[in-house]
Amino acid sequence: MDPKHATTPARPTTKPVKPTKPVKPVKPAKPRARSVDPAPLTGRETPRELLENCFPAFAGRGLREAHRLMRLSIEQDHAVFATVSGAMTPAGMHQTALIPMIEAGWISCLTTTGANLYHDLHRTLGHLIHEVNPAGDDGAYRKARVIRIYDLGFDEDVLLDTDRFFCELLKTKPFQRPMTTPELHFELGRAVAQIEDERKIARPSLLASCYRHGVPIFVGAPQDGSIYLNVVKLEREGSKGFKFRLDVARDVYSMAALQHWSRAKGGRGAAGQASVWIFGGGVPKNYTLQGEPLLSQILGVDARGFDIDVQICVDVADNGALSSCSAGEGHTWGKTSIECVESKSVYLRTDVTVALPIVTQALLSDTTLRRKPMRLYDRLPQACAMLDRAWKQ
Q: Which domain holds residue 280?
């Protein structure tokens, strides 16, 4: 080989890097977490102190978190959309917790079942509901004409008398037009409130309480309840002048409109926020939550989802049912905000009849939490007009 063409190794252009000592990893800061070190009970604790200090873990911690988030909803003046499923009015939970929360101005909108509103009137009409043995002889109960709802019982005449009441009331003039479920229940509440005033009934019904405080009542499956069974009778027998109809499309739109209004300029809270309190699962839960995807996915209106999500329900999550849908799963549908999922939601897996009286008592014991009712029913025309303008743009 020609020495002129011989190759020589290239000189390094940079100095070799000297080996350095290994960098000592920085320990991440420990998260600031509350210590689990509850003090002994003395019997002198207030309801709030009991919940905040003596429920440190597991389901107890979930109960404490439900109380914290419900309290936050009230303190920040959120519009609160509550849902109630299960046989809550036969069990008296409307008297124990729901009506006191409505009277305190906390619940702004209610979604429940037709059954709860039907059974709501038994006591108003002078009937009693008793405890029965859930392991008793159902054949004997039937022969004795005793209707059983697990461990509650009442005479079959209670149903027949309640049916007669609704049948006669639905024939009257205010109901002879197409209506949404809030409009139907507002008129029912007006009539029942008048009866309560005339008879000087001390304990109000749920229908009358919502009417008095301007709380709209939605029912997502009205045909699955005894009030509507009486509508069926009146329609099929061709009752003269009976023109009652449910406007389902306007019903769904009204729910979305109230949620949109609650976050828009018409909302009362400084931040224009909304909370959902879910007591049980079922249709009331989904009917309320679906207002958000209706706004964002169908109408193309900006909707971030609920800001606080409190759920008390017995259902497990791994069966795919909607009743147990968490706030995180709901976020994938646009039903809850990401901030809600990260720090402002709780799923307490327990029975509503166990948890709700405890939380309600703790909230009611603080008189500073009382607030003026939002009267969302009165805002319905304004809310629908606002949503009309928003989605048409």
A: 55-392
